From TrEMBL:
Name this polypeptide is given: Glycosyl hydrolase
UniProt keywords, alphabetically: Hydrolase
Cell inner membrane recorded as keyword: no
A GO term for molecular function: hydrolase activity
Amino acid sequence: MTTYFNEQESIKSRLGDDDNRTLKVLADRYIGANPPVPFAFRAFYRSGVLQNEDGMFDLNLGRRFPEARPGQFSYAFGLVWSDGERNLDVLFHCLGPIEFYFNDERTYRSNVIDEIKPDASVKLNLNFVKGWNRLFIKGKHTAAGFGCLFGSDEAKVRILNVLTPFAERQGQAGWVYSEPTDTDVFEGSPLPNGLASEKAYGLRWLPTCEWSESELVKLVCERLFGLQPGKQVYAWTKLNKVSSGEESCLLKGHTAGPLTVWLDGKQVLELAEEGSFQVEVPLSFGKHDLLIRSICGSHAWGYTLHAYVKGEVVPLSAPHKVHGSAEPWFYVGPLDSSIELAYEELIRTDRIYAKSSESDAAGDKTYWQLDRPDAWIRPYYENAMLSNKWTVGNVTNYARWDYPLGVTIYGLLQAGRLLERSDIIGYALDHVQSCTDMFEYSLWDREKYGFPAINQQLVMMKMLDNCGSFGSAMLEAYQEDKDPGFLPIAQRIADFILVRLERKEDGAFYRICQDEYSENTMWADDLYMSTPFLCRYAGITGSSEALDEAAKQFLLFRKYLYMPDQRIMSHVFDFKYGMATGIPWGRGNGWTLFSLTEVLEVLPEEHEARPELVHFFNELCAGYADLQAESGLWHQVLNDPDAYQEASCTAMFAYAFARGVRFGWLEQPDRFINASLKAWDGLTRLAIDAQGNVHGVCSGSRYAFTADYYKKDLLTVTNDNHGVGIMMLAGTEVVKLKRWLSHPEEPATS
C-alpha cells in the first residue's frame, strides 16, 4: 500500500487510542496553520481596469482611448504576489495584436486568428514563483481593435488578485495602463520595473491617482462629491495620542456648512452654519474614533480640522489599515439629509449605506472612499494569495467561502463540541461570520465593480459547489450563534437549489456547466453539495419542501449512478453519452454515504421515502465494507486494488458506519462497528502524523471514463481541505460510537 510516513511518525504511535487528544491535535494544527486574519483592505480606483461578470479584466484600450490612431501602442502592467509556487490557467480574449510577458519573458504573441475571430479564447498555463510575479501586456492599435480581456480560468474559484506596480502606487489594487504612444517604447529595451517610480519611463500611467491643482484648492467634500446643497457626508478618522495619561485636546478648524463631531461616540460639537470652531476634549493615551458629519452649504462643502495637545499636533491615522493609502480619513456619501445613522452604524467597514431613504438597489448605496480621484476602499480575499482551486501549503484559508472549507468548518464545530473547547467553536464561527458579515457588501461590490473581490462563489452562485457545503456549515454554526445575518443567505441558497438549479425532466439535479467537458453531467458529489444544506434549512425554517427534496434526490441519483452488482456508486453520469462512467471514485462514494446519514438523521419515521433510503443505506454500507483493505483504508478507485489507498473516503465511511450503528439503521451492526474502528485505526497509523498533518487525501477531481485518471492524475496533497474536516468528523463519530457501545441503552445524539 501507499505510505506517507513511517508509522513511528504517526499520531497513533504517540497517542495510542487517545482519540480525544488526536482530535485536539488535528483541530489545533489546522487553526495554527490558518490564523484568523480576515480580508485585506486596499485602495482601488474605479476609473481603472474593472472585471466583467466572468472575472476577466477588461483591458479594452480602444474604448478607453477612442482617439487612438492605428499603429499606436499602449501597455498594461500588474503585479501578482504568490505565497509559494503556484500553477494557474489564464485566459486571453484578444481585441487586437497583443504580446504578453510573464516575469519579463514573452509568453504569448497573438496570431491573426486570435485577433479577428469573434469570442476566440486562448488559454495559457503559468507557473507563478514565490514572491512578486509581473504581468505585462503590450497592445497595438489596428482597425480591428485595441487591447484584450485577461483573467484566470474559473475566476470565482481560482482567485487572481492583481496589484498595482510602481513605488508611488505600492499596495494599491488593480492594473495600470499607459496612454497611447506612437512608438514601441519597450522595443529592444527592458520592461519596466514594477517596484521603481512610474516617472522613469516617459509615459503617463493611468488611472490618475493624484488631484489636479484646481481640485486641491477645494474643500474635501466638494472635491469628492461636488456641490450638492443639503446632502451630508460622514468622515471617520482616529486621533492617535502617544503621550501618557489624560490631557486636554483642542479640536480646531473651519467648516463651510453645518458640522457635527463625535469623539468615541460622544457628541462634542455641533455647528448650525459656516464658521470657525474650537473645542477642548479630554484625551487619554491611544487611538480614538473621531467621526464628523458635514452638510453641504450654498457655496462650498467641507471642513478643516486639527487636534492639539499642549500645542503639539495630535496625529491622525486611518480607522482601518488600507494598503496603498496614507490617507487618514474615510468618507461616505453623499447621503440625503433624511438619512439618520447611529454612531455605531458608521464606525465599521462591514456594511454599505443607503444614499436615500428610498434606496433598495445596490446602485443606490455607497461605501467608504479616500481623498483621491475616484479612490475607494475595497476588501480582498488574499489569505491564499494567488489561490488555486484547492488551497494548500503555506497559505491560510480563513475568511474563504468554498465547499471543501464547509466540511472543515463542520469538523471544527463537532470537534469543539466533543472536546468542550469553546475556542475551537469560536474560531469556526468567526470564519463563517467573516464571510456572512460582508455578504451585503459583496453584492454591492459586484454591482459596483463588475466582479466581487470577496465571497466570489456565494455572490456568483451558478452551481451547487458554490453554495451547498459552506451554506450547510453556516446553518450548523447557527446552532451556536443565532446570527440573523445567516438567514437571508440561507434563503438565497435555498431559492437557488429549490427553484433555479438546473434539473433533468424527472427532477434530478445535474450540471449544465459552461465548458463542453463537464456539460450535461450528474456527479455523486452533488448529493453532499445539496442535501445536508436542505436538511438543515428544513430544520430551521420548517420547510417540508426542502426535506422532501433531499430525500427525492437520493432516490433519483441512485437511479443514474448506483452499480447494483457491486453495491457502490459510479462517480458521474454523462448525459452526452447516455451512460454512467462506471468508475467508483472513493470520495464521490464517501460524499454519498456521508450525506445519506445527514438525511436519515432528520427524516421523520413516517416519511414515505424513509424505508427505501434505509434499505439503500444498508446496501451501500455492505458494498463498501466488502472493499475495505486489510489496512483499514479504502482505495482511490474502490474496486481497483492497484489504486492507492485514500484517506478522505476512508474517513467518510468510518463516519457513516459509526452513525449507522448508533442510530440503529444497520441490519448487521457488528460488522460495521469493526469496519469503522478498523478504518479509524488505519487513519491514525497511516494518514495522520504526530503533528496532526493529514496525508493521503486526493486533490479535487474532474471525471473520466477510465480509472487511470483517478489513480495516476489525481495525486494526494498534504492537509488538503477535502480531508482535514472529515478526519475530525470521523474521529468525533468514533468517540461517540465507543461511548455508545459502553451504554447502548442511551439514545443516539448528534
